[in-house]
Amino acid sequence: MEVVAVSKPDGGGIRFWHDRPVLVTGATGLLGSSVVDRLLCLGAQVTCLVRDWVPKSELVLSTAVERCAVARGDVTDQALVERVLGEYEVRTVLHLAAQTVVGVACRNPVGTFQSNVLGTVAVLEACRRSPTVEQVVLASSDKAYGSQPRLPYTEDMPLSARHPYDASKACADLIARSFAATYGLPVGVTRCGNLYGPGDLNWNRIVPGSIRAVLRDEPPVIRSDGTFVRDYVYVEDGAAATTLLAERLAVDDRCHGQAFNFSTETPLTVIALVELILELMGSAARPVILDEASNEIRDQHLCAAKAREMLGWAPRFDLVAGLTRTIAWYEKALAPSP
Fold it and tell me: pLDDT (tens digit, 9 = 90+) per residue, 192-205?
């Protein structure tokens, strides 16, 4: 099943993006690669700010990078970001760069806060000082909410993050909205459920890790007890949400300084997700449940009513459609060389 999502006509769609200079941070990541591909299809002039060269990223493997300008450096370097904004006359900034792995954040909180918090401050201040920037979209996360007393999570709930990764996303989220409130910066915030899809190279995540395990004839490994509940959002839907919010920021002042949840609103347990992957891959394997997860939220899923009503957004891909496309990508990418 697919439900079509279409940008509202007055949001601009292809007309909005055609020849528009856009800066994408975090372009080698899962979401960043998909956003860049979408922007190129829409005719944008894309500049990518890249810290580490990742040869196996979808950005590189798809050759999309060859159609972009590439600036090498770190998002915490405000002077660099200002130079890029000025030299490429950037009009729209999509700030997606972040350290995104919960386990890494627990082991290295300083590096995570530097990337996710100080990097956001540097990018936003550079945008504030730029005479050309017209819209800024920050990719936050459902993790910014922390653990809440009721489900699903709605945007009016406080950001109550406790652990390093969650707190870093909550800080960046609050900082972005403070730049809108204090300086009038036209910034909007996306809060997606767990993104998955082609090109995710973080093997400790449940979707790519489980698919790779099956392809290796190994049992998938679940770090938790398997009962944790999450949203899962196909990355192309996350990319569409990112570009749609930028379009709406250009025409609807009500979106300035606002955060929006993006979710399929079909939560399920981790073990149910893994069992679905096994079914789609025709595997009889049984997952290994370690029950070792710590510093993670047990039950979390989002209400996307605000995005539907204010942005006209809806997901195109349900979980089966998204996983089918994802599995096909990994089967090709991880196939043995002839």
Answer: 999 999 999 899 89
The widest CA-to-CA distance across the chain, in whole angstroms, is 58
Give me 74's structure tokens. 């770190």
The average pLDDT across 220-249 equals 96
DSSP string, 133-195: --EEEEE--GGGGBS-SSSSB-TTS--B--SHHHHHHHHHHHHHHHHHHHH---EEEEEESEE
pLDDT tens profile 58-107: 999 999 999 999 999 999 999 999 999 999 999 999 999 999 888 899 99
Return the DSSP state at 307.
Answer: I
Instruction: Single out the residue of 138, 209, 205, 202 nearest to residue 174, CA to CA.
Output: 138
How far apart are the C-alpha atoms of 97 and 29, rounded to whole Å? 8
Instruction: Give the pLDDT confidence score for residue 8 in this predicted structure.
Output: 36
Nearest to 58 by CA among 241, 203, 208, 198: 198
Q: Give SS3 for 316.
A: coil
Chain centroid, CA 338 distance in Å: 34
Question: What are φ and ψ of residue 193, in 5° steps?
Answer: -70, -170
Residue 218 burial (CB count, 10 A): 12
Q: Which residues are catalytic?
A: 165
Alpha-carbon distance of 25 to 290, in angstroms, equals 35
pTM above 0.85, yes or no: yes
In whole angstroms, give the CA distance from residue 333 to residue 338: 13
Name the β-bridge partners of 233: 195
> Alpha-carbon distance 159 to 7, whole Å?
29
Helix (H) or strand (E) holding 50: strand 45-50
Amino acid making up residue 186: P
